Amino acid sequence: MTRYSRISGTGSYLPPRRLTNAELAAELATKGVETSDEWIVERTGIRARHFAAPDVCSSDLALEAAKNALDAAGLQASDIDLIIVATSTPDMVFPSVACILQNKLGIAGCPAFDVQAVCSGFIYALTLADAMIKTGSATKALVIGSEVFSRILDFSDRTTCVLFGDGAGAVVLEASDTPGILASDLHADGKHVGILCVPGHVSGGQVLGDPLLKMDGQAVFKLAVGMLESTARAALAKANLTDADVDWMIPHQANIRIMQSTAKKLKMPLEKLIVTVDQHGNTSAASIPLALDVSVRSGKVKKGDTLMLEGVGGGFTWGAVLLKY
Ligand code: UT7
Fold first, then answer.
1. Residues 57, 99, 119, 161: which is the catalytic one?
2. Which terminus of the chain, N or C, has less C-beta within 10 A?
3. Domain that holds residue 197
4. 240 is catalytic
């Protein structure tokens, strides 16, 4: 019998501190940085974001999201035999957030590691977990995107600091007799390193280079739309499906204009687009599983629906996962 992988539960977590655009603009004004709710909404679709408290790390957000996903799947942490966390904002240089999370979940022994593919991280992580389940290396995996991007924002740079937020999303992916993940498509092109990066690094006990996020927003925007279109088409072709077979599109939540342009290029009605960027901002690797969990819990996404998840981010990295929920 063919062995497939299927999502059996979703979960998410947002830190309690929520800042509307107006609240963030007022805070930035005290530092001489000028922005407005109007500009942010018009250019990005973002209305609010959540920021974690200074002592809260990616593993803390991941833990809450993981617990919710385990509950939804009707499983205990001890049932899990693989943990993959997608993050670009780990608790420390090493060990991985996945190992720290494993300990916080009170389990030990199963493989646990992080994936660093920035905003495409969850797509990469889900593809890896699917492959490990299909080849028999795992049976019940926790796949998580968790970020505290507020830690790497330059709050004197209005072109980036208004765009991002913190949060975590998780899924339990289980071995199944019936297809869940139908196809996946992953890419990277390292020549674009400079247009979206945090160039600093630790050396000799010091941080060398700038440890805050740098982005050429227009360059990223132009690349993102084409990449999201081509990877969605590639995933559909691999599964022998067409855009008409997709019930919901859950793209990386960076900018409503990127999401709508991609949907138009794919001839996907905008009603099929799941949008949470308005409430979460861009939470990088957490954005797709967060949007998935919100749409499952709101009743939009139902068992048996066909979902197109897709992401693009620093690296550049991009990719899509087509699945039956
Ligand atoms: O997770 C993956 C990654 N990231 C993305 O997907 C982001 C992709 N890029 C974008 O979403 C958009 O390029 C941005 C939202 C970052 C910027 O939107 P834009 O329409 O490309 O604006 P722009 O960079 O062309 O800036 C237009 C104007 C500039 O002023 P001038 O030069 O026209 O006078 C900026 O200085 O808007 C100004 N501006 C702002 N004004 C108020 C830039 N940021 C702000 C701000 N508030 N926060």
1. 119
2. N
3. 181-324
4. no
Same-domain pairing of 188 and 316: yes
Q: Are residues 164 and 185 in the same domain?
A: no
Residues 42 and 191 in one domain: no
Is 57 among the catalytic positions? no
Phi (first) and psi of residue 205, to 5 degrees:
85, 10
Residue 306 CB–ligand 1 contact under 6 Å: no
Instruction: Write the residue with the smallest CA distance to atom 43 of ligand 1.
Output: 159
Token digits for 160?
């980036």
Ligand 1 pocket: which of 43, 123, 282 to mutate (most atoms <8 Å of CB)? Answer: 43
Q: Render 49-93 in DSSP notation, one character per residue.
A: EE---TT--HHHHHHHHHHHHHHHHT--GGG--EEEEE-SS-SSS
Using a cut of 0.85, tell me whether the model's pTM lies above it. yes
From 206, 166, 159, 165, select the one nearest 62 (Cα to Cα).
166
What b-and-e string marks burial along 194-219, b requiring 16 or more CB atoms within 10 Å of the CB?
ebbbbeeeeeeeeeeeeebbbbebee
**Helix ranges, 141-208 (H):** 158-161
Of 143, 176, 209, which marks where a domain is finished?
A: 176
- Calculate how far, in angstroms, residue 163's C-alpha sits from the geometric centre of ligand 1: 9
Residues of the chain with pLDDT > 90, as a percent, come to: 100
Q: Which residue minimizes the CA distance to atom 13 of ligand 1?
A: 217
Q: Which of 159, 195, 256 to mutate to test the pocket of ligand 1 (most atoms within 8 A of CB)?
A: 159
Q: Which candidate, 167, 209, 185, places its Cα nearest to that of 311?
A: 185
CB of 119 closer than 6 angstroms to any ligand 1 atom: yes
Cα distance between residue 150 and residue 51, in whole Å: 6
Q: Is 252 a catalytic residue?
A: yes
How far apart are the C-alpha atoms of 55 and 126, rounded to whole Å? 28
pLDDT digits (tens, 9 = 90+) for 262-277: 999 999 999 999 999 9
Residue 139, judged by CB atoms within 10 A of its CB (0-12, 13-18, 19+), counts as middle
Q: What secondary structure letter does DSSP report for 136?
A: T
CB 168 within 8 A of CB 285: no
